[in-house]
Specification:
GMP Synthetase, Chain A, domain 3, 299 residues, alpha/beta, OB fold (Dihydrolipoamide Acetyltransferase, E2P), 12 helices, 3 domains, five-stranded mixed β-barrel, single chain
Length: 299
């Protein structure tokens, strides 16, 4: 094709180093290009370059979904926070902001990449500070044992800005998974707490035994007994009377997070609710020693 190809001989006249398959570039200045045509050509080239850049940014961030990135707050508009992440601008919507957390321009912030969408203005990156995945990624950054796969985060339940419960496990009997996450003098968990503006974090050991897992998930409350219904995937938990409010938590938060963490429906009863006084009295009578009763009658 004479329009896009030349012979090797012609190419070597231009540069003796050219070989078959090489590309030769010519600088061409069309004689009949007017000002409007040149401007149109420039706009087309610029538009294609922008589209290519947008495509590259989209591909970059679509592969970074579920990861944590650090950005700088660029502006705040209608309670939406716009974060500069270098090549792209992320959006932190109101429902993805930690309740009570204050934001200011030029503040550095760690955020969770939740979703990436293509729009006419380019890719939009939707961020979150409330997603449970943020807590998981922060622990991965702070705890080398999690990065190395020695400790595994099995489950997370979170009410952003208030409390989070995490269940961890390890397959190395020489490693304490909870201790690894807490760190020396609590330095590892404290680093995560500070990043989350003081959010409380409970870390427990994961167990394949539902009763043991549920009992641990309700900490700091002490549990007397756990009754499991496998068919309904429900559990009845008995706690001491003075521990009932602690087990339920403020506005039911503790039991709600525990149920989400374990994946079980949990019904909490106090000792006196599960063992009414009349039943206890009847049981005491039944368990009374018959010989003692006969001795009393003889006397």
């Amino acid at each position: 094709d004479p329009f896009i190809e030349v012979s090797v001989e012609e190419a070597k006249e231009i540069d003796p180093t050219y070989e078959i398959g090489d590309i030769i570039e010519y600088q061409v200045t069309p004689m009949d290009f007017g000002r409007i045509a040149a401007q149109t050509a420039k706009q087309v080239v610029v538009q294609r370059i922008r589209e290519t850049e947008r495509g590259m940014i989209y591909d970059d961030y679509i592969n970074r979904q579920t990861e944590v990135v650090t950005g700088v707050i660029q502006r705040i508009s209608n309670e939406k926070v716009f974060i500069n992440m270098g090549r792209a601008e992320g959006i932190l919507n109101v429902n993805e902001q930690i309740p009570g957390e204050k934001y200011r321009v030029n503040q550095r912030l760690k955020v969770y990449v939740m979703d990436v969408k293509k729009t006419t203005k380019g890719p939009q990156v939707f961020l979150s500070r409330t997603h449970p995945g943020l807590v998981k990624r922060l622990f991965e950054l702070e705890v080398p044992e999690i990065q190395d796969g020695i400790v595994e985060i099995k489950s997370i339940s979170r009410e952003a800005g208030s409390r989070t419960k995490i269940a961890v496990c390890t397959y190395d009997e020489n490693v304490d998974p909870v201790g690894a996450c807490v760190g020396t003098r609590g330095n590892r968990v404290q680093a995560v707490v500070e990043e989350l503006s003081g959010e409380k974090i409970d870390i427990i050991t994961w167990s394949e035994e539902p009763g043991k897992l549920i009992s641990s998930a309700l900490s700091p409350a002490k549990v007397e007994m756990v009754l499991i219904d496998e068919d309904e995937k429900a559990a009845t938990v008995v706690v001491p009377d003075f521990q009932l409010s602690l087990a339920i938590g403020k506005e039911g938060q503790n039991v709600r997070l525990a149920a989400k963490l374990c994946g079980w429906k949990i019904d909490i009863k106090s000792h006196s609710q599960y063992y009414p006084p009349e039943i206890v009295e009847e049981a005491a009578v039944v368990q009374a020693d018959p010989e003692e009763e006969q001795k009393d009658e003889t006397e």
